[in-house]
Amino acid sequence: MNLKRVVVTGLGTLTPIGNNVSQLWDSLLKGVSGAGLITHFDSSNLKCHIAAEVKGFDGTQYFDRKEIRTLDLFTQYGLVAVDEALKDSGLDIEKTDRDRVGVIFGTGMGGAETFQNELLSYAVSQNTPRFSPFFITKTIGDICAGQISIRYGFHGPNYSTTAACASSAMSIADAFMMLQLGKVDVMITGGSEAAIIPVGIGGFSSMKALSLRNDDPATASRPFDKDRDGFVLGEGAGTLILEELEHAKARGAKIYAEITGCGLTADAYHIAASHPEGKGAMLAMRQAIAESGMQPTDVDHINTHGTSTPIGDISEPRAVVSLFGDHASHITLNSTKSMTGHLLGAAGAVEAIATILAVKNDIIPPTINHFTDDPDIPSLDFSFNKPTHRRVDFALSNTFGFGGHNACLAFRKY
Predict the structure, then answer these.
(1) Is there a single domain that holds both residue 245 and residue 269?
(2) Which residue, among 249, 351, 243, has the nearest Cα to 307 in the 3D structure?
(3) Domain endpoint, select from 189, 215, 250
(4) CA–CA separation, 286 and 289 (whole Å)
(5) Residue (of 115, 160, 148) closest to 345 by Cα position
(6) What is the widest separation between alpha-carbon atoms in the chain?
(7) E-strand spans in 97-169?
(8) Is residue 144 domain-shared with residue 226, that is, in the same domain?
(9) Is a pLDDT exceeding 90 seen at residue 127?
């Protein structure tokens, strides 16, 4: 069978450096850090006091108070990003065959805040435990996808992907393949996360994954820097509207870029550490390029996973050198996590959006907070501290997750 071509026609975000796509892109190009001292709760009894929080979000601006009681924050974030993306796409829902519109929306932690709060409530009142009737439906990871379909009446494929930090990239890959196969005309995809809570900060801190640069939050996320000491936990959501090309053309949709391939692999190595030579990452990039009908020498830009962790920031550049050889020095890499922090299950979607905008605008956002070169990291063009203006015809977005899950998405200028 002939596979359908798939394009991106709408974008929506809610991030620590902007509550919509325009704000996000402006902040990325200016090198704005979204990290600061935690305000969501009192973190004084924890080792880590910093995170990249969404700023100025008020759920009552989007939902009535009765509805908010039924929605964990991660679902609220997701619904807001979806609303922006649908408006951006110009899709007339009333004139669209909603039986052929699907939703695949990822999350790593799901309704973590609801789960934490319900258990804390139970712990202090064991004699008369009272659980919210919305406890389960606010907590389960698939509920954001379900809430999206209910809100808009989309009857196509509907589920969530969970692959830790690769969750939303996996969602985009699944949505892409659904469209390629002709099962749907439109897919709403991406992911959301809201895990800046005591158990989230405490849990990641206990495994020594987080930066403890509490005295200087803005420079704490330092991908590929010699003095990096872990990632900064972020939160938010990202949504892409993916559409079969002919369907998009028939309605005169604007097209940001074409998604041409995906690579999905496993490190098969360790529950948290990446393969030291980046084998899974290399295989994922190679798959995405091959599926796109392109060559490694066609790649102009890679938005790396680049978390600011000691091991991961070495293995991914090694994978780049392993796959691309001499061409590696001609690729502009970056890590937008230096600004947004690590959005866990929403990272892949937000970083895919940054990659798409780089392809569309021929500008690659910087990797901020670089002070000292690390001799253990291959010397590549990481777009340190200032944006790079160059033509970007073909780009990759890498996302990797605990458990050894790797996803690479390929985007081409349309």
Answers:
(1) no
(2) 351
(3) 250
(4) 5
(5) 160
(6) 67
(7) 101-106, 158-159
(8) yes
(9) no
Contact between 346 and 191 (Cβ < 8 Å): yes
Mapping DSSP to helix (H, G, I), strand (E, B) and coil, where does residue 289 land?
A: helix
Phi-psi region of 344 (alpha: psi -120 to 50; beta: other; left: phi over 0): left
Q: How far apart are CA 400 and CA 410, in angstroms?
A: 15
Over the range 224-242, which residues count as b (16 or more CB within 10 Å of their CB) and which as e?
Answer: bbeebebbbbbbbbbbbbb
CB 132 within 8 A of CB 118: yes
Q: Which two tokens stand for residue 367?
A: 């990797």
Give residue-wise pLDDT tens across range 67-102.
999 999 999 999 999 999 999 999 999 999 999 999
d(CA 197, CA 115): 11
Summarize pLDDT for 45-64 with one digit per residue, the tens: 999 999 999 999 999 999 99
- The pLDDT of residue 19 is 98
Residue 168 and residue 273 in one domain: no
pLDDT in the model for residue 125: 86
Q: Are residues 319 and 230 in the same domain?
A: no
Give the domain CATH number at 360: 3.40.47.10
Q: What is the average pLDDT across 182-204? A: 98
Tokens of 49: 């006091």
Angle (deg, nearest 10), helices 73-89 and 143-152:
40
Q: Pull the structure tokens for residue 328.
A: 């590696």
DSSP summary character for residue 46: S
Q: How far apart are CA 396 and CA 306, in angstroms?
A: 13
Ramachandran bin of 6, using left for φ above 0, alpha for ψ from -120 to 50, beta for the remaining angles: beta
Domain assignment present for residue 2? The answer is no
Q: What are phi and psi of 199, to 5 degrees?
A: -75, -30
* Residue 1 clears pLDDT 80, i.e. is over it: no
Summarize pLDDT for 331-357 with one digit per residue, the tens: 999 999 999 999 999 999 999 999 999
The values of phi and psi at residue 364, to 5°, are -110, 120
- The residue whose two tokens read 């319900």 is 118
pLDDT of residue 128: 82
Query: Is 234 within 8 Å of 165 (Cβ atoms)?
Result: no
Q: How confident is the model at residue 207 (pLDDT cuts 50, 70, 90)?
A: very high
Catalytic residues: 165, 305, 342
Distance CA 397, CA 45 (A): 37
**pLDDT tier at 172 (50, 70, 90 boundaries)?**
very high
| 61 Cβ neighbours under 8 A, 6+ residues apart | none
Distance of CA 208 to the CA centre of its chain: 22
